[in-house]
Amino acid sequence: MRISEITSANKPYIRITKGKKKVDVPIVPKVVAVPPSKLGLRKFAFLGCDNIKVTFKGKTVRLNWAFNHNRMTLYCTGGHKAYSWNNVKVATINSSKGKREHLIVCRREFGDETERRRYKRYPIIRKIKVTQGDYSFMASTADISYGGVGISVKRNTRVIPSEPLVIDFGDSTIISARLVRTVFKEDGSELLGCHISKGYKFEMMKIVNHDEAVAESLKVKEKENKKDTDKGWTEGEIKRWH
């Protein structure tokens, strides 16, 4: 996949790594016209994008371009595959219209196929309560895996990435997680991507397997109900009355 082919549908984000610390920052791609004065950039592969925002200490701020000194990797999905571009940088230019635009620049046009998810994600929706210190809010899950959970909230939250979250599923299942990625949506809602430690893998397996079992039982009951119906029978099909 080419870096220039990335759209919002590919769910791109930049992973910033500094030592052992990592933070994933979502980006919104856009078409940027590079002016003639910046023709030197054309020897690189690049992707135009909106201002990159990051949640820091409970506040939403624009990405500081000093992050270029850290290791940054661009990730996205395409079909059933994931792609990555290592050692990307962020540049700010004045477009042909005089507007300041942002580019994600890389020396390689094509991304490497990669695997971002260790565990399969299941589209399970559950009402949950999320707590961080004295701050708590109600939300719902968007997807669940053995090692993570996607949380959908209708408004911006004051979650601090470095602090642990306590997630209560309402059935005596309470786990601890950490925020690793935030996606801001146009309707003002957020999608919080959270990592769950291996110590809670058994609890996550119970949630996933239970919900899958319930879904499967509903399918079986639906099939049985269809078998019990007498719709479609005609008098000529009945060979003998008892």
Commentary on this structure:
- The protein is mostly beta strands and 242 residues long.
- 12% of the residues lie in helices and 41% in strands.
- Strands 11-12-13-16-15-14 form a six-stranded antiparallel barrel. Strands 2-1-6-7-10 form a five-stranded antiparallel sheet, with no helix packed on it. A three-stranded antiparallel sheet has the order 3-9-8, with no helix packed on it.
- β4 and β5 form a beta hairpin.
- The protein starts with 12 loop residues before the first strand and ends in a 14-residue tail after the last helix.
Architecture blueprint of SSEs:
Elements: E1 13-18, E2 21-26, E3 45-49, E4 53-56, E5 59-62, E6 71-78, E7 81-85, E8 89-94, E9 100-106, E10 112-114, E11 127-132, E12 135-145, E13 148-153, E14 165-168, E15 174-184, E16 190-196, H1 201-228
Antiparallel strand pairs: 1-2, 1-6, 3-9, 4-5, 6-7, 7-10, 8-9, 11-12, 11-14, 12-13, 13-16, 14-15, 15-16
| Proportion of beta-strand residues | 35-45%
Identify the overall geometry: globular
Q: Helical proportion?
A: 10-25%
Count of separate DSSP helical elements = 1
Distance between the termini: 68 Å
Order of helices and strands: EEEEEEEEEEEEEEEEH
Q: Strand tally, please?
A: 16
* Biggest pleated-sheet summary: 6 strands, antiparallel, barrel
Low-confidence segments, given as residue ranges, are 229-242
Task: Briefly note the structural class of the backbone.
Answer: mainly beta
CA radius of gyration is: 24 Å
